[in-house]
């Protein structure tokens, strides 16, 4: 049995702007990924609305700093074979940082956390796949540069990279989130990448 | 679709003292509960080795304070219909508190967190079911009293209660954890209770 | 006996720019409100220079994050009948956020804290009255929009709203704080609103 | 105008074990002290159920660590002439420390916080009066030693000391809290001490 | 024996942009200062890449907030005669604050921490010397104003001031850090200032 | 140039019970170690009175939790070749844990922090040498067992171990700290161990 953790924000939680409501379980991309990968892999979904890579945002009764929460998840879902991280959209909010370069630094921090995590039972460290979220609607400053930064980072640290913009797009309603079809498509498109990384 | 969060410690993670290793996915009690409840319910497992109800324990690179981590999970898995909390065993460690009365106060805090949690989309608050862990091997001071305290608390605050000692027991190896058969049995025994609480 | 908590920043503390010094006790708006309401109501003043709605500002040896400090005050002054919150001016500092939309999100968080607070003795939750601070001197970006955002928020969540700009204005010296007459006038103007909310 | 901050726990909040409820405003000791001192002094009450001197207790949705909360109060009520600290009873709980020596160390920390607090407007630091709470009912380990430790500490650091046991006693109901008459009596008995310290 | 703490960021750590690597021990400015001052003075170097005056930056597995770390160093190296603080460059990053006025406020906070620090053995408080870092390469917004702000602050609070730009300059490679010769020169130039302040 | 970090508590700071005062610089064990090792090695001393392995102790205006402070030091003194950790005595205080088994768990956490630390410049991780402090005077519960636990731990995780009790002893005055001669002797005795570990 292989275990994959999907660590993300509202795009992973499944925020449906047409409600607002949450997409049905079967439409969220981690569920689609699970269907594609079948019974030999357990896909764990952990998406939080508003989660950033590594920055505080106290506007909710939840800890939105992805770097503070990740270590505990690495333990509670250990042993992990792969961590898929799709974060960065909330870093682009003007009151967080609004700067794709900073999101890249936050992503770099998350990768370091995965690689330095203390596993008392001695499991090997999981692989990492970073996913650039689909580009928010035109006009959002810097959004288009995120994928380039992430690809460069993945090369530098030696982890996997996937650009969601190649397979899905944000909805018209808020220009940030995905409709059901697009979120399912993302899970399906990630499946072959995951299979290669897990050598399935 | 109903969603149930199983919030616990190593007994929920599935610590197998005969390894030490983690029990196979299918043997962990949340998986057994999922099987029993079928497709109309999603069971989310979140068990961390060493997790306490509401106390700090800095001996791991993970946040073991159950009260600090719970709010974020309530958001990332929202909307929830039921939260099953099986914690308290680690509160009984001498260097945490070693006192079932204090574990009860910690459990009371967790229930208050569930009930006061801010849900921006306005979902109704989930029900709570507290589970007293199986009594650790004889000789552990106060362990036997935990179930009584939890039952009293459940009456007082109006939530569900289940005593795991009625259906399973700890293993001989360390007198704390459960073998595969016992952990499966716990999930199966919880199913009818959950069905009643969810009015399935 | 009814109890009202006045939760604010330097405008509530009573910062007198002509000193700098603190306004005399009788000139601060919570004192004026107390005089108007008389003996049947206790008005508690809790104003901190530099306090924000929900953001960290480490430039003082005091915790300026209003969201971190509020829960304890809700307990130490329980049972409360009304919480008046006049915050947001410090959120407008360029190094905090400088954005009235974000101040509104912070205010929303404070209201959620009041409503979700755990009161062990079971007192009913207090009502909330949000007060938009007087508009800072012309030229401050976004300052004029705060009142509109707060009014909209009050409608949305169902709490009271009062726009201080209708009854008082900031002083010439720093364009931020109020002189003694204006701060007294605010307390007097709030009295009838509070009487209605408390059904006095 | 002189300002006095009364910093304490449930004995200052006014916990009435016969309810449980809060004592009427006029019966709490800070109110009695206010009556005795008259209009030239403002007495600020800040009592929180469960507050310790300097230790974490996560069993409530409020920060019970007196050392973490005090700096902000020193600023929000500045300029202060006197800080009266009556804490230590909760330090004696078995799950906090249960040791009067440790409570003394916590009280020492609070005094250091008052003395090292940064006041941006340059007000002189307030005087400190530490009050040993009335001795809890017989049988509580170490409770009787607290007053001795506090007196010794007051001598060492040069602050005021008052032993509440000389003028009031705990009630029969829970052996910890005071009835209305005793709590009033404490405020009255503190008045002459405060007058001397403030040179009124 | 006198003790001097050098509290800084990468300019104190000795970041050599030509590597990137760390400058040799003998080339770092605290070492040069030590050589100049001789055996009667102990110079302690504590420089961290990315350290700010008083702001959080979670992009590293180290606490970069200078205000949170300083109190512990004041104790671990007590008794101190002088604290030299050269910080502010990282405050100028766009995602921290990018504003020299805010860096000044952070520096003011650090000075308040030194002056209010609780020393249990009663050592006198150390003197403070603030050092404006060399101006980053042209085009960096606001960089040139930092020295002016620091000088003004030093006058206001009565501490020492030194402008590094008078004796050294940043390298061409990244326009931020110093080469070996410049960092040595800074330590040599600080020596006479330190001698005066320590009355050597 | 090799760099060695000496991470400890009052025994490393150089607490002289006959004062109380701090031992002269030349008498502290890190200084003695520096003399023995000569110019090719830089010995960095970081000892804090009251420091524990991994537990909070809020009785000072400094962070005594060794696990919270260590990551920053690993960065500010990088690249490190060896970290010598002599902690555990303060864990034995009754109000911390008073249990050598728990001190061992805290030491295990510190070793994990060293090994998982993220070094952005890619330096190899430093070696670790754990030192059991000299046994406190007879009668201290559990003190004698600490060395055995640490030796066992060193074997298990593959790091160096040294028992200070073999070469030095605590003073008569408080039964906890060392006089000048003993602290010097510790540094001298550690030198050959360090030479072997650094392959000098």
Automatic annotation (TrEMBL), chains A, B, C, D, E, F:
InterPro entries referenced in this protein's UniProt entry, alphabetically: SGNH_hydro, SGNH_hydro_sf
Residue span, SGNH hydrolase-type esterase domain: 6-169
MF GO annotations: hydrolase activity, acting on ester bonds
Coiled-coil features, chain-numbered ranges: none
Pfam family, one: Lipase_GDSL_2
Organism domain of life: Bacteria
Gene3D superfamilies: SGNH hydrolase (3.40.50.1110)
Full protein name: Lysophospholipase L1-like esterase
């Amino acid at each position: 049995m292989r275990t994959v953790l999907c660590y993300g924000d509202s795009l992973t939680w499944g925020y449906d702007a047409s409600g607002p409501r949450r997409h049905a379980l079967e439409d969220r991309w981690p569920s689609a990924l699970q269907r594609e990968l079948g019974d030999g892999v357990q896909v764990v979904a952990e998406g939080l609305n508003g989660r950033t890579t590594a920055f505080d945002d106290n506007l909710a009764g939840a800890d939105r700093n992805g770097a503070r929460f990740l270590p505990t998840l690495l333990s509670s879902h250990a042993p992990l074979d792969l961590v898929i991280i799709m974060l960065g959209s909330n870093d682009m909010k003007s009151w967080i940082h609004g700067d794709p370069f900073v999101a890249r630094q936050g992503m770099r921090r998350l990768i370091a956390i995965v690689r330095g995590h203390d596993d008392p039972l001695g499991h090997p460290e999981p692989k990492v796949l970073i996913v650039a979220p689909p580009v928010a609607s035109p006009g959002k400053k810097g959004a288009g540069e995120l994928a380039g930064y992430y690809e460069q980072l993945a090369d530098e640290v030696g982890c996997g990279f996937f650009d969601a913009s190649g397979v899905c797009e944000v909805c018209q309603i808020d220009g940030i989130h995905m409709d059901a079809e697009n979120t399912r498509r993302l899970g399906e498109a990630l499946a072959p990448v995951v299979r290669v990384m897990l050598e399935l």
